[in-house]
Amino acid sequence: MPESKSKFFIPAVGVAVVVAGSIAAYTYFKGPSGGSSDALGSAKVVPSTALMATYITTDPEVWAKLQQFGTPEAQKLVAKGLENFNKQMFSESNVSYEKDIKPWAGGVMIAVLLPNPVKPAQLNVPSGAPNVPTNLQQKPNILIVVGIKDKLSALNFANKLKSEKGAKFQESDYQGQKIIETTQNGKPTYSVVLNNSHLVLAPEKQAVEQAIDTFKGQSSFASKEGAGSILSKGVDVKNSLAQIYVPDYAGMVQQLAAASPQAKQLPPQALTQLKQIKSVVAGIGVDDAGVRVKAIANLDPQLNKFQYQSSPGKIVGQFPTDTFALISGNGISRGWEALVEQSKDYPEMKQALEQARSQLKFVNIDLDKDIFGWMNGEFAFGAIPSNQGVLASVGFGGALVFDTSDRKTAEATFTKLDTLAKTQKINIANRNIGGKDVTEWQIPQQGALLAHGWLDQDTVFVAVGGPIAEVVAARKNPSLDNSDTFKAVTGSLQKPNGGYFYLDMDKTKTLPLINSLISSNADTITILGSIRGFGVTATSLDKSTSELEMLLALKPTKK
């Protein structure tokens, strides 16, 4: 959030809470908050025109779960960052978040509203200027709803702010509700307290007025089609820090694109693709493994043409334990067929595919059959450390492994590629590695640039760099699926799934190429030292539901 908008929060909070009552209402303020800080309750005062909303918990016990992770150095760095943030936020006041705000502030909902249309009278254009625009695109409005969990503490905070200097306050009435206009550094912001249970804040007065209209009975975000179910269910993550709700995904993208000055109008084909996703809900939480993110997309089964198939996960065992990055999945050929089918509705994509086909035909290769046709099983790409030969400067190489039920076509494709390499003055040599026949593309004084061979009857590999071919083909070291780090990063992810994205942070940051990028930033090195790895997977229960899960695996704090 821009600095000018972030600074409106503190003075606006205090003066708005004053409106909620007086000292004479002591007994009422001392009472319970009635669950007003939950996401569904906050959504009931957010207008139905909201494109999306994020609910952030302020429960200190939940945020304290993060303290079980990280090195002492990283924790000190984070604590310093929070301290600097607090100083910056409250630099112009005598306010302490810990003492003055934390006791009463419940959960926070941040909603994105449609931008207000710009009227010609609002434009600061010299008189007589030609071609005055009447429909300038604007940034979406932000509306913040803060649950009041302790009304007495909120009132005490408001009374304290009454003596604060540097801010100007002006009160107005709308629908019987008191709106406080707070002007600080020349920037006005607006706030109101609704039902003594929610504090509503916005940098635009119209957004606050819309919230009051909603409170008075107009349709809310909670009643919006598709929103009620995702608000009540949310996403099941332990110790939820935040939940994100998008009830109309296609509509949101379309509206945000229309509001962006740089955006082009979405073509009908793109809008059709977007409509496959009806709604999205995501959650961020903390558990014993680290910070976990889960997202659920509700799909239109009539528009969803992708045929999901879970991945067996066995191909991970073809990679050595020191593999530091991996992407795996299943059925490249099906994905290619879906892409070709979609290209029929996109002239530019169709033209690009036809050009690729034509270029490969010159070298006797059929893009659909020879390249993608036989890739019908599980696949994986892994990055493996090596400082030998052509890999010395970067510190790693890569290996692609494919399972296929069409070995004949695959062998024919590699024969064509070998023949093509010979025309480029590349030496083609065969050698035996661990009892397996491997073909190498060799460069004088550099060794093998690329190698390929069969690991078993149905599994072929392609390695970048001769040393990588030796590691993959010989299989002398334990496999990746037996690695403690791989188990820690991916073991708790949902199964069955469509494959993994996996990253071992400890191994990644030691690579020469990566180390050269981060070595000059001590803070980055400190933070990365607390991260064990990163894992992502996706699954689909049926054609109407798709789920994504991510885990930032953190190292536990040493006691």
3D structure, described in words:
The chain has 559 residues and is of the alpha+beta class. It is built from 21 helices and 20 strands. The protein has a 20-stranded antiparallel β-sheet, with helices on both faces. β9 and β10 (290-299) form a beta hairpin. α2 (9-18) packs across α8 (151-161). The longest helix has 18 residues, at 72-89. The protein is elongated, with a radius of gyration of 29 Å. The chain starts with a helix and ends in a 5-residue tail after the last strand. Residues 1-8, 15-37 and 119-137 have low confidence and may be disordered.
Q: What is the strand content?
A: 25-35%
> What is the mean pLDDT?
81
Report the total helices: 21
Seen as an oligomer or otherwise, the chain set is single chain
- How far the N terminus sits from the C terminus, by CA atoms, comes to 37 Å
Please outline the major beta sheet: 20 strands, antiparallel
Question: In a few lines, what is going on in this structure?
Answer:
The protein is of the alpha+beta class and 559 residues long. 33% of the residues lie in helices and 28% in strands.
Question: How is the topology of this model organized?
Answer:
Elements: H1 3-6, H2 9-18, H3 26-30, H4 39-43, E1 52-56, H5 60-63, H6 72-89, H7 97-101, E2 105-113, E3 141-148, H8 151-161, E4 168-174, E5 177-184, E6 187-194, E7 198-202, H9 205-215, H10 227-233, E8 240-246, H11 249-259, H12 268-274, E9 277-287, E10 290-299, E11 325-330, H13 332-343, H14 347-361, H15 367-373, E12 378-385, E13 396-403, H16 407-422, E14 427-433, E15 436-443, E16 447-456, E17 459-464, H17 466-474, H18 484-490, E18 500-504, H19 505-508, H20 512-518, H21 522-528, E19 531-542, E20 545-554
Antiparallel strand pairs: 1-2, 1-8, 2-3, 3-7, 4-5, 5-6, 6-7, 8-9, 9-10, 10-20, 11-12, 11-18, 12-13, 13-17, 14-15, 15-16, 16-17, 18-19, 19-20
